[in-house]
Amino acid sequence: MDIEEFRKAGYQAIDRICDYYASLQNRPVVSQVQPGYLVDALPASPPEQAEDFDTIADDFQKLIIPACSLEGILGDLYSSSVSNPGFNWLSSPACTELEQVVMDWCAKLIGLGDHFLNRNGIGGGVIQEQTTASEACIVVCVAARARYVRENPDAKLEDLVIYTTTQTHSLGVKAGLVLGLEVRALPVKPEYEYGLRGDALRQALKEDHARGKRPFVFIGTVGTTSSGAVDNLEEIGQVLKEHPCIWLHVDSAWAGVAMACPEYREYGKLDAINKYAESYGTNFHKWGLVNFDASMLWVKSRRNLTDALDVTPEFLRTKQHDAGLVVDYRNWHLGLGRRFRSLKVWFVLRRYGVEGFRKHIREGVALNEHFASLVRASPDFELVTTPSLALSVFRLKLPSGVVLKEQETTLSALNDLNRAFHTRISAESDKIFLTQTMLNNTFCMRFAVGAQRTKREHVDQAWQLIQASARTAREDWLA
Ligand code: PLP
């Protein structure tokens, strides 16, 4: 492709992306394809001859079609235009330094303390090359394990335990699988909205220490996936103060960006995070206006990452690194090479400004509050937990006067009814996608707001669809 062909194809790509965004309103919210559709549509081997670019672009239009945010797309486009292996400062100084700056911007935006800033030279932030909160958690566990073993040379690897709660995202179990470590999920109670209290942690530590186990990291959550639960990080931090070898990581993959608004910082336990957390992670690609992927991790001490992950063969040595003049992010995560992801974040933050970013978050919370008020006012539905920021968890109630079948309990009947409703709404409408979850054996639905273009009318339409499906699901269930 020469430069003129690139110019033409580039304009065409932007036109097509614009058309795609303009058409989003009329597209199904979930892909309607069947498994294998693409495997069957594509040849099993690469083409022998070069193909015309228009054909490839048409196939993309027809077969792939992605979804992301406009400013971020442009950032990604620019990022693809620079040759940038990213594996150390020398090979990619702009990529490294923009990331240092942008990570500090993001930290300040969400209120993280100065000790998490790159510019303090001790802590710092990195966009994980492995691109997800799950992989950030593995990196954290590797660093926490290395620190623990350094400080407790008698510890045996088989005794180490990763602590999570029953509400932690699958990332806790995944980290255990990858690292070959035991994971203990601590129980949480509905009375505390499924967040962990300090006493449950203290009790677990007592039990595990008595059986010779060595918990070395606790993965707390602000905004669990299922219900937006928030662990009581103040109490947890107080308990962990008595066990300074245990690393506190806070996963706030979707909710973290809400801390951009001062009014949500108390809810998000920001003070406790700043006081006690060794590391903190959030995904700007979830609710933070940045297109996938931008999974961010901050640590209080970058040494903990580099002590665990710095492997420097001769060919990777540079005089700038040896002199301690630069950050080489390769030692802050698993991969070596890295994409220029900070560009898209930079584009988004500059284009929105702190004010615009906060407005976006506040709109998401307000829309969810609107949804929650519709549920509260309905005789047919109920909220299962208190709405959390932009997430509501709800379910259908049993019709009044319903007689339970033999062996049926109220809970099993409710679960059957709600499963029937969920199956129906998933099959009936291509305009709404509700994910389901289980909370203490209760089957419920999650309503989450977060997209930049979601407006009140969309929430109202969603509510209409929910009510219509609920009517038919109930009739069928009663029949
Ligand atoms: N943690 C929480 C609280 C989440 O909600 C999610 C995703 O939904 C994750 C972790 C996993 O994120 P990732 O896909 O970046 O691994």
Topology as a string of helices (H) and strands (E): HHHHHEHEHEHEHEHEHEHHHEEHEEH
Q: Architecture of the largest domain in CATH? A: 3-Layer(aba) Sandwich
In percent, how helical is the residue content?
A: 40-55%
What order do the strands of the largest sheet run in, or round the barrel if closed? 1-7-6-5-4-2-3
Listed once per kind, the bound small molecules are: pyridoxal-5'-phosphate
Number of domains: 3
What's the total number of strands? 11
Give the biggest sheet: 7 strands, mixed
What's the assembly state of these chains? single chain
Percent of residues in beta strands?
Answer: 5-15%
- Spatial separation of the terminal alpha carbons: 64 Å
Name the CATH class of the largest domain.
Answer: Alpha Beta
- What name is given to the CATH topology of the largest domain? Aspartate Aminotransferase, domain 2
Low-confidence stretches: none
Structural class, from secondary structure content?
alpha/beta
Shape: globular
Spatial extent as radius of gyration: 24 Å
Mean pLDDT: 93
- The CATH superfamily label of the largest domain reads Type I PLP-dependent aspartate aminotransferase-like (Major domain)
List keywords for this structure.
dopa decarboxylase, N-terminal domain; binds pyridoxal-5'-phosphate; seven-stranded mixed β-sheet; globular; 3 domains; Aspartate Aminotransferase, domain 2; alpha/beta; Aspartate Aminotransferase, domain 1; 479 residues
Structure description:
One of its GO terms (biological process) is carboxylic acid metabolic process. Pfam families: Pyridoxal_deC (PF00282). Belongs to the group II decarboxylase family. Its cofactor is pyridoxal 5'-phosphate. GO terms for molecular function: carboxy-lyase activity; pyridoxal phosphate binding. By secondary structure, this protein is an alpha/beta fold. The chain folds into three domains: 3-67, dopa decarboxylase, N-terminal domain (Up-down Bundle); 84-352, Aspartate Aminotransferase, domain 2; 354-478, Aspartate Aminotransferase, domain 1, CATH 3.90.1150.10. It is 45% helix and 12% strand. The chain has a seven-stranded mixed beta sheet with strand order 1-7-6-5-4-2-3, with helices on both faces. The protein has a four-stranded antiparallel beta sheet with strand order 8-9-11-10. Helix 7 (171-179) links the parallel strand 2 and strand 3. Helix 6 packs across helix 7, helix 6 packs across helix 12 (302-309) and helix 14 (342-377) packs across helix 16. The N and C termini lie far apart (64 Å). Pyridoxal-5'-phosphate is lined by residues 132-134, 169, 171, 221, 223-225, 251, 253-254, 283, 295.
